[in-house]
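Mods, move this if it's the wrong board.
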Amino acid sequence: MKLKNRSISRLALLALGFVGLLLLHAHIASAKDSTPPLVITEIVTKSDGSGQPYEYVEIYNTTSEAINLQDYQLQYFTSNFSSPANRWPIEDKTIQPKESLVLWLKKFAYPDIPLWDFNSNYDMYLTADEVYEIKLTTSGQGLHDSSLRQVGIADADDNILSTALINDGEVDGITNRSIIYQATSSAEMMKLGNDEPPTPAVLLPEQVSGPTTPSNLTATPANQSVTLEWEASEGAVSYTIYHSDGTTTSTDATISIIDGLENGQAYTFRVTAVDSEGNESPATKEVQVVPQEVVDSEAPATPSGLKANPANDHVKLLWTANTESDLAGYRVYINGTLYGTVAADKTSLIVSPLELNREYTLEVTALDQVGNESEASAPLVTGPTENVPTPNLLITELIPNTDNYAGYDAFEYFELYNNSPDPIDLKGYRFASYNWDEEIGDTHILKPWDTVVVWTRNASISPISLEAFNYNYFYSYKSKYFQEEYTIVLGDIAGLVNGGNTLTVYDPDGLEVVRAEYSAEDVSLKQTVTYTYPKK
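Not the wrong board. Structure tokens:
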């Protein structure tokens, strides 16, 4: 009987242990299931810079599904933690699975600070997809440096998903240092520490359970397929691949071939690591790849000939055109951050807004049709200046009052001068005065240090020929006659007003190049108004 009782006791202990193990796994699974879909992982309450313009709150999507943040809110609680003092809406933004998003609090007094300044402040290279700008609506809004406050993220139905305390028992407002939090099974995040180096859009291993994010993800195109490779994550037993169409695949290897793709179409992929407990790491940065029947892995040549025309609030960047037949365009970077993309047939871009007397580093790359990107051009360090150089194009003469034909001044014109050592193609330039604004639609090359006469010819006087125009001014001195290459005709416009007005020249980017004003007192029959650029 005693042996039998011992056996029963052992069996009971084993059963109890098994039940306990099941309960433990159930508790773990329940904790995972109850983790909020969005959690707050990092906050900077006091940034560097005048007015602290770089404060941010970082959120993280803990789920395996993309979350549409339309009508979600970043909420800020002051004295009453049951009712937010500020509700800052989020619109037209989606956060991908296992991805972080930086909610940048754009201060009311500094609405135009660009992303590259945010990146420069934190020594990061975030893209616009990784940042959402929360537009504060009064000058008093922002995160407090020293008083106890609560930050929350609420869904479209105003349900609080995640909250984090700042200045809880200690001052968290340390210049350009962050507070980091760990996700829990409740809405309230657990503070791990403050005075930490900011890592916007990058999670630290201790902030989420599970293995580390796979590193060095690459994508190699082939015919209707892509090969993905990455480095193993410690503790991972499998990897999940997130496709751009929202589907996922799983593998226990660090290489995966994705078949059945369409050649010539761009695909993006991200990868996470999964441990034996089912914990999933944050995702890698996405890679983009284009399958090809015959793989083109050769990048375009590096753009050259960068030069800048500075103004007092912007810089016009110019470069020499690439000659590749498969050129798709150019990318312009400012201080390492992508500023914009330029079409293949353009070789200039206005970079703005920029601060006066501050230097910026500008670079240009070339991009082909399948996404190969060249090495960056040699960096050009430049910036706006008060000493704006004399424009390359000048208005040097105009005449509003001439002999008439059909009741209109028939021979009005203005003269343009190329004040540079380079030829200027006037295609895309616009001339505006009074009620007209006319663009040059065809190529017209104005040689260095040369002039062109622009004849403002009303439609009613269109029968008058260039020969008649020449005769009006030079009579029988045919050696002085203008040839077509030195003349542009602007037809069907009102012309230059005799009572005084302003004539303005705009470049193809829409920026004012130069303007000339004249009054009624300046206008006399058959008399020109001449100009010189003001001396500094």
